[in-house]
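Q: Can someone sanity-check these two? First one:
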Amino acid sequence: MSELLSSALRGDRRALARSITLLEAGHLATMAGLATLQVRRLHQPGSPQVVGITGPPGAGKSSFVDRLIQHGRALGQRVAVVAVDPSSPFSGGAILGDRVRMDRHADDPGVYIRSLSARGAAGGLSRAAGQVVDLLDAVGFDLVLVETVGVGQGELAVMEVADSVLVVLTPESGDTVQTMKAGLLEVADVFCVNKADRPGSEGLCRDLELSVHLDDRPGWTAPVFTAVAIQDRGVDEVLGALRRHREWLMGEGLAFWKHRRAEGRVHACLELVAETARHRAMKKLAGGLGDRLRAGELRAEQVACLLEEP
């Protein structure tokens, strides 16, 4: 294990931040060091509780995370937040601004907030998000909150990283058909219609309650709640449902949890392989092959075949 990771385990925040940066960059030695750490959540759920928060932009995910931090700290829990922000497809940069809504926790030594750039990864999470969660697990946090990009559709990666997934919607999010198209019915362990003081919230709740029964998950039906997170209304009920889901996973739902985590490990491996292959291809395209592709002398299919050659 590297000295940097050892320092992070001893509570050094700078070493933790630097380790996460190296994991984001795909630093092989840091990833190898991570594989040697004692991850409590490797074979069974429990500690830490990892909650994913997803939903469309503007649903109030960050405000909800802020309230979850507050409630976790009231219980004496050490809380970590991994907030994934979208990256520009042109510059590759990201604002990393979700932490602004959680600023009141910045001076709390029991709270650690880290923003990650999605770096173009599909699924609503950064490629390194799962590795970062494992590191936060090893460091000893009690509650880890993972907030996704919030692009609306295809945010399925969070279910492979988190134990429980909270889907936050608003009356303006669209009807349940859109929710089903986004795959959120299969992803959600708990639904919350936030900003429930707005018109249309009751109708959306009714539709969701009818739709959740279409999910064939054995033993657990996702409950539907309303809340106004910015006013801390309805948050307790959501937290209660997340606690019940955690208990279900530790008992009757353990086989379900193990299957989802197993699939998550396979997906994480494939993501690493794909990223390595992409970087290798980009290096080859930096030469004359890339120039011929840009000039139209070669088609993409031809170049792809050439890149496969040793």
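And here is the second, same format, sequence then tokens:
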Amino acid sequence: MKIGLVQHRCSGNVAANFDKAEAGVREAAARGAQIVCLQELFGSLYFCQSEDHDQFLLAEAVPGPSTERLSSLAKELGVVLVASLFEKRAPGVFHNTAAVLDADGRYLGKYRKMHIPDDPLFYEKFYFTPGDLGFSAWPTAFGKIGVCICWDQWYPEAARLTALHGAEILFYPTAIGWHPSEKAEYGERQHSAWETVQRGHAVANGCYVAAPNRVGHERPVGGDGIEFWGQSFVADPSGEVIARASSSEEEVLVVPIDLGRVEFQRQHWPFFRDRRIDAYGDITRRMID
């Protein structure tokens, strides 16, 4: 089978962003992709670079208008879609949410981002309530998939719990990049750490990891902005990067995978079998003093 990742630039035009994402899905499907994942918050500029109440107008119900359009697209093309959306749950309560749509257009459910960052130009705690749906996996027409979102990708606990639900592929819709003033000194190490930790999730859980990341330089509030580093990638169950997109260009990555590798890897490197679940109780503590 094949999976597709859509990496593109975003603008302040929501309709144009959605059209671009749809075009990417159509291209991926035409090239044989059966599961397609869009990048984090693909419908807008990365608005979390500032704390601005007007940005809440971008949010919508999930399911809602965007999932309806994507559901029709999934059904038309016969593909599974993973789409990252800005969810309005209730007045004053918003989430960074990924919707999962099966190949017949059915809405299977959603994942709400659990780990919310608060760093310079990544002021997500202003916008997003931490997720409360836990970690999960969905049986789709083409395999059982799990979804986490961006900052979640740094946490092995999130990957493990999603894999324990049976996920064969972990998708991580992403919006990560460099502060241009830091790129020369820290850029290579930052990107390497991002990719390496996710490759580790693939190894530790014997599954595929797929991370579509946005690309381009966004400066919605002026200043240096963020240079999103692209480089969407897929790692196989041994942690090898089997496909990687450009660091500067829009790209639709379509990658052949073999889900038989998941069972093979888990049998031959039986980390699930050898877990000492009797000894892990302290993992729920903030620190062990």
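A (reply): Looked at the second one. The chain has a mean pLDDT of 98. DSSP finds six helices and 17 strands in the chain.
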